[in-house]
Every structure is written in structure tokens, then in C-alpha cells.
Amino acid sequence: MDDPAQLTPAQGFSMYKFILVLLAVVIGWKLLNYSSEVSYGPGVMAPDEPQQEALDPPVSFKLDQFTVTKVANFRIKAKVLSKEGYHFGREANLSPVDLALGWGKMSDESIIEQIQISQSGRFYRWRVDSFPIPRREIETQSANMHLIPANENVANAIDDVRKGDIIELSGNLVNAVSDENGWRWTTSLTRNDTGNGACELIWVESFRVLTL
Fold first, then answer.
1. According to the model, what pLDDT value does residue 7 have?
2. N or C: which terminus of the chain has fewer CB atoms within 10 Å of its end residue's CB?
3. How far apart are CA 44 and CA 47, in angstroms?
4. How far apart are CA 156 and CA 141, in angstroms?
5. The predicted structure's pLDDT at residue 118
6. What's the Cα-to-Cα distance from 170 to each of 69, 157, 206, rounded to whole Å?
7. Taking the CB of residue 126, how many other CB atoms lie within 10 A of it?
8. Listed residue (87, 132, 130, 127) closest to 106, CA to CA
């Protein structure tokens, strides 16, 4: 006697099609109800400078094949100007996501919308047709930050963040050295630098999106 609980090939194929349709409906609904960018309108949303306090002496710990050294406590409230994920290369093993963050006037959408912002190759780039604020204010009130999540909850929160979000994170500015070949990745320790070496490398212990 046939097992009544066993599906025929035709029934199995129909069930497979049903599951695919159901998944397509769920994914479509999420896409329709999900925006890749958040807008709060004009106004300074993160007025304060990042907070930094040097650690003396620095504190080192092992992370996979790296030695990571905490050199300063760090906290920032800022607007996400851009987000870029990385999946390949030794840097990605430490920091899978970069955020370009803005504070002060660079957290004001009426200013940001006049600046073309992009990220690639671990750099944050901007260009303008005409300056909405002085160049030096753009340079000193925004930065590209390489994020090293301290745990899975932090990693998930960073993955979910969207352009335009107002975020608050805390942790440490760090330097990293590969135990295998001595390769180094060094953090910036000032918000006033530009170009190569001006990005912050951050061990992120707390990360949250603020609801305004």
C-alpha cells in the first residue's frame, strides 16, 4: 500500500512552486516597504564633535590572526552619509563595513544634498559644483570610518544601518597588526587630517540607530 504521507512527484513540484511564489511575495513586500535611505529634513542632527580620550598605556588583544591595540576611547553621534561593504582582502577580515559619517553642518540634509558623496577602495570621496559651506568644514566635520564589530549584535546593527540614519557608536580607536606577516592598519587620531591615513579604525562595542 502507498504511504499516504508521501508526495507524488507532481505534488512535490507544486509544493516547490508554492514555496517559491511565497518567497517572491515576501521579498517583494519587503522591497516595497524598505527604503535604502532615511530622510529627516533640514537641520543639524548631530551637533557635537566626536569624543576621544587617549589610553595610556594602550591595551592590546588577539583577534583571529591579528594583534589589535586600543589607543583611545571613542564615541560619536553622527549622520550616515554613505555605507560601503567589503568582502575581499585582509582588511575585510577585520572590518567588513565602512561608514562615511557627518556631524555639525555635515549632518544637515540641506547642506549634504548639495554634495556628491561616494565610497570605494576604503576611501570616502566628495565633490561639489559650488561649496555650500567652506571646504575645511566639510573636511573636518565628516570622515570615513572602518568599523570592527566587537560581537554579532553589533555586526548585525551595522549591517542594518541605512544612509541618512543618525547613529551613535562607542568603542576604541585601534591599530591592527597581522601576526602572519607584520602587515599594519593604523587609525587616524584626529578629525583634521585628509587623504591616505585619515580614516578612523574603530573597535565598535556599542552601535545603535537613534529614533528622532
1. 54
2. N
3. 6
4. 26
5. 95
6. 16, 13, 5
7. 18
8. 132
CB 66 within 8 A of CB 177: yes
pLDDT: which is higher, 15 or 130 = 130
pLDDT at 31 over 60: no
pLDDT in tens, 62-90: 999 999 999 999 999 999 999 999 998 88
Question: In terms of pTM, does the model score above 0.90?
Answer: no
Question: What pLDDT shows up at residue 22?
Answer: 67
Region of 192 please: left (phi>0), alpha (psi -120 to 50) or beta.
alpha
Can you read off the three cell numbers belonging to residue 5?
A: 504521507
